[in-house]
Amino acid sequence: MQFGIFSVGDVTPDPTTGRTPTERERIKAMVAIALKAEEVGLDVFATGEHHNPPFVPSSPTTMLGYIAARTERLVLSTSTTLITTNDPVKIAEDFAMLQQLADGRVDVMMGRGNTGPVYPWFGQDIRQGINLAVENYALLHRLWREDVVDWEGKFRTPLQGFTSTPRPLDGVPPFVWHGSIRSPEIAEQAAYYGDGFFHNNIFWPADHTKRMVELYRARYAHYGHGTPEQAIVGLGGQVFMRKNSQDAVREFRPYFDVAPVYGHGPSLEEFTQQTPLTVGSPQQVIEKTLSFREYAGDYQRQLFLMDHAGLPLKTVLEQLDLLGEEVVPVLRKEFAKNRPADVPDAPVHASLLAAAKKKEGVGA
């Protein structure tokens, strides 16, 4: 099972000081956080994609390529790649290039994002969001697997004899997660292709997450990719820790109250009761995270949101120390207990390459 962090890259004033970091400071902070993630033994760093203030990560592959050059083991991913407004040809090229540079330490999460105006900015219609996601990914899937593609669809110009370059490393495309919070059509899409399904359940109660994950698992089996238990599931989460839970609540409250993603709504206490957000001691984070298995089953990837709402870099790095030293080692041990042997590990380039070679051998 993989553990890591994801960043939405928001530039938010620190409510305790009133200071707003510059865009350069925030970008550099995201890099420092990724490097710290590898240092403390985490498996994955993922960045979002946004094209509007107060967010900075408009070019995920640029950032991830820079991080790839400074890391050795970390899997580099996105927490949203906008399959609706990016050209599938450019996604195919950009991520194959990143995959080559990073020696395969790359996967990608497809999503529609949470900013409606991005559609007209890139010449698309938000009313076609699901249709764009379905058609664009169908083309991307082919571009990574066929050397020469002839294609015609509704939302872009046709392709005739087109070859996307560079080709995926070792002929194996990056693993794809389809991220969605509320759209069953995306769970269906992930299941159809046998890809992963990532439910970023940071805003939603457990019963909603359970329904979405169970739908994906059932449809994964329906399409013949394996049993429901063998489907590839990832979950999001949010934590803020201090050794003493009261200190964590007191320190995090002003950040929660003004956070761009959930501020000015339910109280901190209401939010932690109703969603996966955990504000407290490392032990409380362990207990809450382990409870995810009760409604999601045995899953493959757990990502935490930790660097948002104006939290200073020093504080985030302290959080990562706690996560890497006190939380993740226990989670690895506990999640491994009673895990059925037929539940697959999180896909990585080496395992995907081995599976491809095995399939070639069977077909030979």
From TrEMBL:
Entries under InterPro entries matching the protein: Bact_Lucif_Oxidored, LLM_FMN-dep_put, Luciferase-like_dom, Luciferase-like_sf
Entry keywords, A to Z: Monooxygenase, Oxidoreductase
Luciferase-like domain mapped to chain residues: 1-294
Region (Disordered): 1-21
GO cellular component, one term: cytosol
A Pfam family: Bac_luciferase
GO function terms (MF aspect): monooxygenase activity; oxidoreductase activity, acting on paired donors, with incorporation or reduction of molecular oxygen
Residue stretches in coiled coil: none
Comp. bias intervals (Low complexity): 9-20
Protein name: LLM class flavin-dependent oxidoreductase
Organism this protein belongs to: Streptomyces haneummycinicus
